[in-house]
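User: Here's a structure from my thesis project, written as structure tokens. My advisor, Dr. K., wants to see whether a designed sequence matches the one we expressed. Can you design one independently, without my sequence as a hint?
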């Protein structure tokens, strides 16, 4: 029997507010900040303290809800989610339950089989927990677990899909697209290594072609795309093997061991009643009226799907457009370069700009670990370089050398070309003299060419370009070389 995946995904995204969800403590990078430095009686759960809602967090959540095509609730009610864990100082988490901020959205995915719609069940706000650090005692110290509450109370947005995802490839595509949307909206920086986006996958399998939903497992705290993919692949294979052997999958909460590449049982899967949800008595309902929602909507930036369509309209193919849209800084750089070409009335089209960014600039950025918005080649400078190549002032090979110098020094293309004497050689007499010198110095290769080894023509082209310092016009070199090789063949009577 064939089994097919049924996957739903919960995404927890920290919001880029300056202060925490219910208090005035600063939101800091908890991976580098001094532990327990940014904590107050409210986020530490001291008796008698009262929370205050962070309006900016609500606005960020509304941005996400609108971007995900959700229905925004006119009235938001917060709830207490009760459970005990060392990183939860209050003994409960202020979240949302019966009346979340938004419901019934969707994300469109482009797949090999056509466009797929992943439905969004709900989007709601809550607060993050602290962080635990475990000391195993292997160095002779006393085994212990330490708690850092700097992260406790940071605004956290939970985005929950319906079980619409039918493959691990779709799952990864959805997760990456959602991360891109969050970054474009400016509500999350997408830094997976620091845990600002965390995944929890709900996994089950069923007989192919059926609609029945079997028992599912939930894999907690998958903190990278690699972990998400590997964890879900492992769990899907495990569940399939259980059913094929005649067993039954148990509803459980699982962890993921990245080192061993396998899931492990944390506890039996909780139900909603286990958390004893009830309305948060210390917070009023939040009303989202039409005017507030309209103001948020009007401030939304151009999102990845719209940008992708616009780039395609500029003549880019699907692949190049997707590469540029994947990171907002790259898309902004490309846009700025296209504007620079238009403003300078240069015949540099969008396809040429995209090609230089993806085939040349990306390599320099990757090798130097520099982000594109911090590189020393401004968009307008890249356009000037491309124009020099297209105008024949330098050839493409020289252009790559010039770009490297621009990247390292911040100089303009004109300055690099002038300083290093890299202007393209377009003098046919100079090129002919160089080619004749190459032919005269390589009698053995000439003999091979005359014997019928036509591939030697490419060898002579390479030698001629090298002899001319790589600065000659390639098309002119090819034309003159063809003439000279014909002359040699005629002289030999071949």
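Assistant: Designed independently from the structure alone:
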């Amino acid at each position: 029997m064939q089994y097919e995946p049924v996957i739903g995904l919960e995404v927890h995204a920290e919001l880029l507010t300056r202060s925490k969800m219910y208090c005035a403590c600063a939101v800091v990078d908890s991976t580098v900040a001094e532990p327990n430095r940014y904590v107050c009686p409210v986020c530490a759960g001291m008796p008698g303290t009262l929370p205050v809602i962070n309006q900016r967090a609500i606005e960020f959540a509304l941005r996400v809800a609108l971007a995900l095509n959700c229905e925004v609730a006119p009235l938001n009610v917060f709830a207490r989610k009760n459970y005990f864990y060392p990183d939860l100082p209050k003994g409960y988490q202020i979240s949302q339950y019966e009346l979340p901020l938004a419901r019934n959205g969707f994300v469109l995915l482009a797949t090999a089989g056509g466009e797929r719609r992943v439905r969004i069940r709900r989007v709601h706000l809550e607060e993050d927990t602290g962080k635990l650090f475990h000391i195993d005692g292997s160095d002779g110290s006393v085994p212990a677990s330490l708690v850092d509450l700097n992260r406790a109370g940071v605004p956290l947005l939970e985005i929950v899909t319906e079980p619409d995802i039918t493959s691990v490839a779709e799952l990864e595509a959805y997760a990456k697209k959602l991360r891109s949307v969050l970054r474009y909206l400016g509500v999350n920086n997408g830094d997976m290594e620091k845990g600002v986006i965390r995944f929890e996958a709900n996994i089950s399998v069923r007989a192919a072609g059926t609609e029945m939903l079997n028992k599912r497992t939930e894999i907690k705290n998958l903190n990278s795309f690699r972990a998400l993919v590997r964890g879900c692949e492992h769990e899907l294979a495990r569940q399939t093997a259980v059913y094929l052997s005649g067993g039954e999958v148990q509803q459980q909460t699982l962890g993921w061991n990245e080192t061993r590449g396998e899931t492990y049982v944390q506890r039996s899967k909780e139900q909603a009643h286990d958390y004893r949800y009830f309305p948060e008595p210390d917070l009023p309902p939040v009303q989202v009226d039409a005017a507030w929602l309209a103001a948020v909507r009007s401030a939304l930036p151009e999102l990845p799907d719209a940008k992708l369509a616009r780039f395609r309209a500029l003549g880019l193919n699907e692949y190049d457009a997707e590469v540029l849209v994947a990171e907002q800084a790259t898309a902004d750089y490309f846009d700025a370069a296209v504007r620079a070409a238009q403003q300078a009335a240069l015949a540099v089209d969008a396809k040429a700009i995209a090609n230089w960014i993806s085939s040349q600039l990306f390599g320099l950025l990757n090798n130097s670990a520099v982000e594109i918005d911090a590189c020393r080649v401004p968009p307008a400078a890249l356009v000037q370089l491309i124009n020099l190549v297209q105008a024949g002032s330098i050839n493409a090979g020289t252009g790559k050398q010039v770009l490297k110098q621009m990247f390292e020094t911040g100089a303009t293309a004109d300055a690099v070309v002038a300083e290093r004497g890299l202007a393209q050689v377009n003098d046919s007499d100079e090129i002919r003299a160089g080619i004749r010198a190459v032919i005269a110095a390589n009698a053995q290769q000439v003999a091979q060419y005359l014997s019928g080894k036509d591939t030697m023509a490419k060898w002579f082209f390479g030698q001629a370009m090298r002899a001319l310092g790589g600065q000659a016009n390639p098309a002119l070199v090819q034309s003159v070389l063809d003439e000279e090789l014909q002359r040699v063949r005629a002289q030999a009577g071949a």
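When you compare it with your expressed construct, this may help: The chain has three domains: 3-296, 302-420, 428-492.
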